[in-house]
Amino acid sequence: MPTYAFVTVDVFTDRRFGGNPLAVFPDARGMSDAEMQALAAEFNLSETTFVLPPADPANTARVRIFNPTAEMPFAGHPNVGTGYVLASQGRDRDGALVFEELAGLVEVRVARDAGGDLTGAVIDAPRALALGPQLTVTQAAACVELQPADVVTTAHAPVQASVGVDFFFAQVLPEALARAGPDLAGFRRVAAETGIDNQRLALFLYAPDPDGRTVRARMFAPLQGTYEDAATGSASATLGALLLSLGTRDAAEFEVIQGVEMGRPSRLHVTARRTAEGVRASVGGGCVPVMRGEVTL
């Protein structure tokens, strides 16, 4: 019976048991799609990654990302954490890695401290900002046990946006953020009303601090099996791109604080910039190793 090694890391944190946990299988050769999905469901983390040889030897690896119910084209904390794990095994090239994923190529740059020890990684989102459909204020509020008056529409209506994976973004009053919680019936009702696929109905709530650079956030995707996420890198990168697109600046930086209400505080550093292809974004943060083990299939 084949045996596969795995490691877990906490991502977007500098301390164990903070941030967002991730399971990584550094060598998933021979594993079937069904086995990958079953393992992701068994770990029951927001995502689990499976590393395979790249189609193009110029790249580092092919990386497949699964949440508990489906494969994902791209995600933030899985790429940051997988980059950290592979770099710890010496698989980076001068601090850089390139992953082949369903959404395209993902570039990863590892971070080290003054002593040369790995501390984390930064990723570039694979696509420029793209906007999708909107939700009504009532629909957004119904998903997260809030009132329509809690949703702020000064800058934008609740809108779907993506730099590789789709999320809906809704600004809320700061005092409403702590009161929010996933309403499964509300999510199901909104999915039926809008025709949005369950895997694409993920709601990212945010409340900017007065400094305009720090953002408090929470993410709910119960129809995907993630009732709340401790740190959502792909959504944070998208938020940075969205906020930049609403103004006139050429570039901006944001610190996204997430996971506080879950007892897993996370800090994500986001940069966004205007390019010839559109608004692009990057997201990074620290990583801490937690567990190692083996799975026999």
Q: What is the average per-residue confidence, as pLDDT, rounded to a whole number?
A: 96
What is the CA-CA span between the terminal residues? 6 Å
Question: Which sheet architecture does the biggest sheet show?
Answer: 8 strands, mixed, barrel
- String of helices and strands: EEHEEEHEEEEHEEEHHEEEHEEE
- Which oligomerization state do the chains in this entry correspond to? single chain
By secondary-structure content and strand pairing, the structural class works out as: alpha+beta
Number of strands: 18
Strand arrangement across the biggest beta sheet: 1-2-3-4-6-7-8-18
Shape: globular
Beta-strand residue percentage: 35-45%
Query: How much helicity do the residues have?
Result: 10-25%
Give Rg in angstroms: 18 Å
Poorly predicted sequence stretches spanning 5 or more consecutive residues: none
Determine the number of helices (DSSP H or I, runs of at least 4 residues).
6
Task: List the defining traits of the structure above.
297 residues, alpha+beta, eight-stranded mixed barrel, 20% helix, globular
SSE map:
Layout: E1 3-11, E2 20-25, H1 33-43, E3 48-52, E4 61-66, E5 71-72, H2 76-88, E6 96-101, E7 104-112, E8 118-124, E9 130-134, H3 137-143, E10 151-152, E11 159-162, E12 166-172, H4 174-177, H5 184-194, E13 203-208, E14 214-221, E15 226-229, H6 233-245, E16 251-258, E17 266-275, E18 278-296
Parallel strand pairs: 2-3, 4-6, 12-13, 14-16
Antiparallel strand pairs: 1-2, 1-18, 3-4, 4-5, 6-7, 7-8, 8-18, 9-11, 10-12, 11-12, 13-14, 14-15, 16-17, 17-18
